[in-house]
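Sorry to interrupt, but I need a hand with the structure work. Please put the record directly below this note.
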Amino acid sequence: MWRRWIKILYYTVVIGYAVLTLIPFLWSLYTSLKTTPDLDKMWVPVSHLTFENYQYIVTKFPFFTWFLNSVFIAVAVTLGNLLFNTLCGYALARIQFPGRKLLFYVVLGVMMVPGQVVMIPVYIMLAEWGWINTYWGFTIPFLTQSFGIFLMRQFFLSLPKELEEAATIDGLSRWGIFWRVALPLAKPALAAQTIFMFLGNWNSFMWPSLLASSEDMYTLPVGLNSFHWQYVAYWNVDLAGTMFMTIPMLIVFLIFQKWFIKGIATTGLK
């Protein structure tokens, strides 16, 4: 009997938490459908909801340019991280070479350095290369991250060595073992990394705002920030743009959620 009540309590807490996390999204959606005069009506139901805010964003601003910039940068950086982080993580986990442990400690050390510390040196370097306000500057410096390397290394360490030993007996090279044995088994970690990297770059504001000096190079977060003026902020228009931003994130998460949950649950067990 007590197990039944514990189960009821568990589902009550979970459902209640889900409702609480859903309220801000529903409130943002509701506000995005309001007219500007109705923005001050916080708790009073409005009589008229409209999609004019969505139309206003699409027609009055280079919204599709910002959207394509965000898609290109997020996809390019995510693919780069999947490639380089996976190769580096596998090398640190499975290949014996001088300085391997030292290199891993360097990766851990980089993870502990706040990103704000390297902002000025990286910006000066990109400016000297002429990469400010270019796609090169938006993507190349961010094609690998220490967290992704650490994530992949920990996952590859959890794989049984017997699998690779059997593949070696069958005549596979080191690259063949990585491509045919380790990589297919790493789908959970790859899915987790894909979600982390895509969402992080899709929502990124700091670096795009520093590197973009013209409106045609804005990403969506930077472009939506232009809706704010010194004394006025049109939150209905801003939240309409935010609703547009959530669609790709929902699609990516729905595609990879199964592998994402499995990757979080199993990565680093060893």
